[in-house]
Amino acid sequence: MATKSIENFQSKTTATNACTHIWNGNVSRNGYGLYRDPVTGKTVYAHRFAYEMHNGPIPDTYEEKPSVIMHKCDNRLCVSRDCLLLANQALNMADKKAKKRCNPNRKFRGPNLTRRQLAVFHRLMDRGFSNYQICKMCGKSESHMHQIRKKYNQAKQHAIILEMIKWMLAIPTA
Predict the structure, then answer these.
(1) 6 vs 52, 53, 83, CA distance in Å?
(2) Are residues 94 and 125 in the same domain?
(3) Which of 5, 23, 67, 172 is the most buried (most CB within 10 A)?
């Protein structure tokens, strides 16, 4: 790793009490630091660059599964050597569950809605309202509305296919 890359990276971090180094550069939509290496020109996650800076290249797999870099401190902007661990997604999710940062029984990551709310959303969708318009009326996020619309459209497609199958089975064969 080039000295210029390391110096540039370190200039974008701040020492704190909780974690030794916090990322101050660009941040992705999902809350992780983004670092553009001046030598290679590539943009990478800051925590992955920090791990490679201290430990060498990240292997493709960890315990026969694709590898990830896990934050021990659960701070997405942390780039401290002490807080970054090599793991796989299964271990990362087990850590998340152990720290109670998720609901282990929840399978659909969408919004919690009553049947009545869903029925209203479906009527609005059938009448041609956009996700944005429905969100403004109901106070829900556009990403949740997108998930609801996607599931609703899939259900409608399945219903049409089932009707076609029923119709085809009802046709007498000669």
Answers:
(1) 11, 7, 18
(2) no
(3) 23
Q: Which residues of 116-125 are buried (b: 16+ CB within 10 A; e: fewer)?
A: eeeeebeebb
Q: Is the distance from CB of 148 to CB of 115 less than 8 angstroms?
A: no
Domain end point (choices 98, 132, 159): 98
Per the prediction, the chain carries an average pLDDT of: 82
pTM for this prediction: 0.58
Distance of CA 128 to the CA centre of its chain: 29
Same domain, 123 and 73: no
**Lowest-confidence range among 12-16, 17-21, 29-33, 117-121?**
17-21
The residues with which 70 forms a beta bridge, in sequence order, are 85
Answer whether 78's CB lies under 8 Å from 71's CB. Answer: yes
CATH number, domain with residue 86: 3.90.75
User: What secondary structure letter does DSSP report for 47?
Assistant: H
Q: Are 65 and 89 in contact (CB under 8 A)?
A: yes
Domain span holding position 123: 115-170
